[in-house]
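Workshop exercise sheet. Pairs work together: one partner reads the sequence aloud, the other fills in the structure field after running the prediction. Swap roles for the next sheet.
Pair: D.N. / O.F.
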Amino acid sequence: MPKCNHCNAHVSEQFARVFADEFGEVHACPSCSANAGIAEVARERAPQA
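Structure field:
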């Protein structure tokens, strides 16, 4: 089951498909980030390759 790497909250498969990085990691979820800024927060928290 997918989960947020920041707060360990469960996220749906659909949420992970949309907001996960290229490795399938979810770095922000509705539990730890404002809904409007999830994509931006996810990019900020994702490790730089």
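Discussion prompt: The two ends are 25 Å apart (CA to CA). What would you look at next?
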